[in-house]
From TrEMBL:
S-adenosyl-L-methionine binds at residues 164-167, 185, 213, 233. The keyword Methyltransferase applies. This is tRNA (adenine(58)-N(1))-methyltransferase. Residues 329-339 have a biased composition (Acidic residues). Residues 114-369 form the tRNA (adenine(58)-N(1))-methyltransferase catalytic subunit TRM61 C-terminal domain. SUPFAM superfamilies: S-adenosyl-L-methionine-dependent methyltransferases.
Amino acid sequence: ATGGGHRTMATRIGHLLHRAPGASTPVPDDDDDDDDANPRGATNADAAPSTPPHDAGRTVQLGDLVVVYEGFNRQKAVTVTEKGCYQNRYGNFHHREWVGKPYGSKVYGRGDAGFVWLLAPTPELWTKVLPHRTQILYLPDISLVCHALELKPGSVVLESGTGSGSLTHSLIRAVAPTGHVYTFEFNRVRAEAASAEIVDHGLAKFCTVTHRDIEALGFPSELEDRCDAAFLDLPGPWKCIPSVAKCLRPDGVVCSFSPCIEQVQRCCEALEAEGFGDCQTVELLGREYDVEARELQRDLSTTQPKLSSRWKREAKEKARRKRKHVDGGDGDGDGDGDGDGAGVEPKPVVIAHPRQEAQHHTGYLTFARLSPVVTREAIDAA
């Protein structure tokens, strides 16, 4: 980052954190010799510099991560630099002209050929603009996961695998400022990329990215009996269910995302064997609506079957003749205008209608709760 006052995504989740230029955090790895290291993998770089807080009306500064909004499904993440220039079909947009403008501003390119919006990043926007390293979860599934896992500030969450970090950012927002997300990725390259993003977004205080094969090794022993929820996005989630049971506190919730129903069946069998209950599987298919203005016929008693283009032209012509007649024209109007379609005018109204497109299967979300173990000693004590 260049310039002063680096603003990060952390400010969008309610925490005013800033990253020192050039700061980085190494990715914890089970191959490392220092197994007794801080389980959060914290370093001095995680500490946020003492920077004055910024209110909701903050402005774009050099080094900021900005979401450039061009239109529906056309957004891009851009880091603001001194000599940067964003180019698209609307023209050239020089970064230095963005500095000082409030987030949410409309900015024009050179020559006023077109404009874009400058938006502050949120987990929802990041899901739309992030670089895809794997298939990701999208907002309908993410919202259900965060709700069903009963996440709140202070919760400790396990995640495997990290992938592109789409869900990770929403988990962080849900548990911050006093909770923590421990996310694990078996692919070293993806783990390092995710760790760099978490640090760059100023979220290292709330999240630890670790390179580890959870299916083969399970979760680290130092996390046993410490976690409130767990999320699994693995090809064989049933392999690590025993490890999840050790890490969750009683009444903790686990969620597994699987694209195939056979994976769901094997996972449910493993959950039941490890003492989980209240098991349910959900397939979430979002239905999107378009909102637009359309002209609707006001008088439904008319015999006109629909407002055809020909009818519209005839109605406009009759209205023109009537105005000309009333104003003392050449008298070629049709009197009071009581012909077919007279007095029936299309009125533009705002309507919502579902999109005519098929809903695609993403995957199955399986939720289960770890049943508390009731012993004879506990019953006698009660």
